[in-house]
Design brief:
The complex is a heterodimer of chains A (473) and B (260).
Chain A (H helix, E strand, L loop, with lengths): L6 H23 L11 E7 L10 E4 L2 E12 L2 E8 L10 E6 L6 E6 L16 E3 L4 H26 L1 H71 L1 H34 L2 H8 L1 H21 L3 E11 L4 E13 L2 E10 L15 E12 L2 E8 L2 E8 L6 E8 L8 E10 L3 E8 L8 E11 H19 L1
Helix pairs in contact in A: 2-3, 4-5, 6-7
Chain B lengths: L5 H32 L6 H11 L4 H26 L5 H39 L2 H7 L4 H39 L4 H11 L2 H27 L4 H31 L1
Helix pairs in contact in B: 1-6, 1-8, 2-6, 3-4, 3-6, 4-6, 4-7, 4-8, 4-9, 6-8, 8-9
Classes of the chains: A alpha+beta (473), B mainly alpha (260).
Chain lengths: 473, 260
């Protein structure tokens, strides 16, 4: 065995060394105490959420450690945390304990924010009044998400307004407008300035003249007034008379005006027929209802076009006028129905007597179909069966027509050819020959007519409606 | 030899019986040694001799192992913690793992290799050379004379070696972290102290005591019941090391589960 050191000493050294180490480790870990951590005093704090807290989690004031967590217990669904505060550290009654974390992933710690200095210090075992638990990380992310969404929508709309070539143009326009406005304002100010300047100049000049010639002017003014005075004195009587007659006339005018005022007042109050008509509420209602009914009717029929035309033809052979009133209902552009009445003064066989009572009322009822430049008609023409054709561009102002009807009465059926031109939108000029095939009764004619479509009628009704509503006010 | 399937069951049964027999023997030896501690005569010089052998003479190998374990652990964890920018956790993680696991287990394994095999060989030789029988004839209880001092010394010395291991390991990791990885030394110490609890250290020492008992009891048992010849002695030494190492690791698991 070893000569020098005996076994006992070896073991003694070894054990002593190890025990010293063990004591030292214990001392350091326990924070200065060999047997548990009994230093300092404890206070309690209740947190809603103590997640991430542990015993030994640090308690800090202003980033300096002043203690740690002694225990965490469940207390009425909340976390009751006991804090061990190192001796000499004073925590005020209104201090606040906040759970914070070091960095995003860092561990949690308790930060104590001291209250006012005047507050009484917490004594051992007391509970802190103010605590704050950190927001949940997921909740935080949710909030962040909502914010980024908002920002996204804002930038998106901005992008929509200003982004792309269109946006660039918009901005350019804006700048251009601004530029123009500024220039305009500049010009305005400059010109105003010039005007002002010239005005000032004129005033100046005038003042100068006044200054130079003032005394002379004043004397001549005094002279003129003196002369006026003598004239007035000489004619005082006649002037007085004139004035009194003027006064009389004005009095009469006054009474006339008063009468007029009275009448208009009465109308306003609803006296008399006119007044009643204009002021009675019931009347107004009825009128407006009638108008609205009318306009709805027109609206309903406006799906197809309605054309009314009236035409009078002077027949040269008979020296008389034949009149037509036709109503054309046109559901589609290439098709229409025609209903009309004809006042025909001519009688067949012709008589020498011209008697108005002999004139006949005939009817038209035709159906028409347009194919390109041709419109073929068929049905009842002047109370007999007949066919016809119109040639003319669609929607044009010129039209050539040929009608064949009345196949039985005369030796040959009646054939009427006509060229019609519409002028000034509402007027129709027509001319042609009727009953060409019967030499005895054929005649030239010349016609003049009016034509309205539903648009025209509407505007007429509209005018009436607006006039009525203006009255009702 | 003819193939006999039923021999398999016979074999399993034999091994199982042998295992139970051994477990019983080890337990009996432990109980005997503890009981005999309180019976006169108390041979203190035997205890001291064993303490010197187990504790003092093992301290060098434990210090060496501990220092390098701490250093390599600091280096390895620094790679991982650098990814999170959490290098300040190197000290606490090294200290915690040393105190809780590596200290007791590694010093236990080191002592097993050095002491457990020596005990088995020594007692096995005494058994083979019939010295144990001689002790009996002299009226000396061989268990009290041979086993009790070893078991008690081992139980006392293993925690001490673990303290050495923990300390030198933390010093090694401090050296590695501060001088080679460039961390703040003050911060390292503060964080380590902040994170490690006394409980961690004490439970580590309790584990070490259990391992100490295992080393001594298994070593003595294997030597005490060694078979004849030099071969038997060698076999006893080998088996002692294997059984002790395995049982230390198994026991460590259960102790950790129970105590933490």
């Amino acid at each position: 065995m070893n000569k020098g050191i005996p076994t006992n000493a070896k073991i003694g050294i070894f054990v002593a060394f190890v025990l010293v180490l063990l004591f030292w480790i214990t001392f350091r870990i326990s924070g200065g105490s060999l047997f548990g951590r009994v230093q300092g005093y404890t206070i309690t704090a209740v947190f809603d959420d103590a997640q991430g807290l542990n015993t030994k989690t640090g308690v800090f004031i202003a980033g300096i450690k002043v203690g740690d967590i002694d225990s965490i217990k469940l207390h009425d669904d909340k976390a009751l945390v006991t804090l061990r505060i190192w001796p000499g550290v004073v925590i005020g009654e209104n201090a606040k304990a906040i759970i914070r974390s070091k960095g995003l992933l860092g561990e949690k710690y308790i930060d104590i924010v001291p209250g006012s200095e005047a507050a009484a210090p917490l004594s051992p075992g007391e509970r802190m009044l103010f605590t704050e638990s950190p927001p949940d990380f997921a909740e935080l992310m949710d909030r962040l998400d909502a914010i980024t969404d908002n920002i996204k929508s804002i930038t998106q709309s901005l992008n929509e307004v200003f982004g792309g070539p269109k946006g660039v143009e918009t901005i350019k326009d804006l700048v251009d407008n601004l530029n123009k406005t500024v220039k305009h304002m500049d010009r305005l100010v400059t010109s105003t300035n010039a005007n002002l300047n010239s005005t000032f100049d004129s005033v100046n000049a005038f003042a100068k003249v006044l200054k130079e010639q003032g005394p002379g002017l004043l004397t001549s003014l005094a002279q003129v007034s003196g002369e006026l005075h003598t004239i007035i004195a000489a004619n005082k009587k006649s002037i007085d008379k004139t004035i009194s007659s003027i006064s009389d006339a004005s009095e009469k005018l006054d009474s006339t005006l008063a009468n007029l005022q009275e009448i208009s007042d009465e109308i306003k109050e609803g006296k008399g027929t006119v007044g009643k008509l204009l002021t009675d509420e019931k009347t107004q209602k009825e009128v407006s209802r009638a108008i609205s009914g009318l306009s709805s009717m027109i609206g309903g029929t406006s799906r197809f076009r309605t054309i009314i035309d009236y035409r009078s033809e002077y027949q040269f052979a008979y020296k008389d006028v034949k009149s037509y009133l036709n109503l054309r209902l046109q559901p589609t552009w290439d098709k229409y129905y025609l209903l009309g009445i004809v006042d025909d003064p001519t009688v067949y066989p012709p008589t020498t007597t011209t008697n108005n009572s002999l004139s006949q009322l005939k009817i038209n009822a035709e159906i028409a179909k347009r194919i390109s430049y041709f419109t073929f008609r068929g049905g009842i023409i002047e109370s007999t069966g007949g066919i016809g054709v119109d040639i003319g561009p669609p929607g044009g102002h010129i039209k050539l027509s040929a009608d064949l009807f009345n196949f039985n009465e005369r030796p040959n059926p009646e054939l009427k050819t006509m060229l019609s031109i519409s002028i000034l939108r509402y007027f129709l000029l027509s001319g042609g020959m009727t009953d060409i095939l019967n030499s005895a009764t054929r005649t030239w004619f010349f016609g003049l007519g009016l034509s309205f479509n539903d648009e025209d009628l509407k505007s007429v009704f509209g005018l009436a409606a607006s006039a009525a509503s203006a009255n009702s006010k | 030899m003819a193939f006999e399937p039923l021999k398999i069951f016979e074999y399993i049964g034999e091994r199982f019986t042998a295992f139970l027999e051994e477990l019983g023997g080890i337990c009996t030896t432990f109980v005997q040694s503890v009981v005999l501690l309180f019976m006169p005569p108390l041979r203190l010089d035997l205890f001291l001799k064993q303490m010197e052998f187990i504790g003092v003479e093992s301290s060098f190998i434990v210090l060496l192992t501990g220092a390098f374990t701490g250093m390599v652990f600091a280096l390895q964890t620094s790679y991982a913690f650098r990814l999170f920018g959490a290098q300040n956790l190197i000290g606490p993680s090294v200290a915690l793992s040393l105190a809780r696991e590596l200290g007791p287990v590694l010093s236990g394994l080191m002592v097993t290799g050095r002491v457990g095999s020596a005990m088995a060989a020594e007692l096995g030789t005494m058994k083979v050379t019939e010295q144990i029988d001689a002790l009996s004839t002299m009226g000396i209880n061989p268990v009290q004379y041979l086993v009790t001092p070893r078991v008690v010394s081992s139980i006392l010395m293993l925690p001490m070696l673990t303290v050495l291991f923990d300390f030198i390991g933390i010093v090694g990791s401090y050296f590695m972290a501060v001088y080679l990885l460039g961390l703040n030394g003050e911060r390292f110490v503060n964080d380590t102290i902040y994170m490690v609890d006394l409980k961690d250290v004490y439970i580590g020492l309790l584990k070490a005591a259990v391992f100490g008992a295992l080393i001594a009891v298994v070593g003595c048992y294997k030597g005490y019941y060694a078979e004849k010849g030099a071969e038997g002695v060698g076999k006893a030494a080998t088996q002692a090391v294997v059984i002790t190492s395995v049982s230390i690791l198994i026991a460590d698991y259960f102790l950790t589960a129970m105590l933490f």
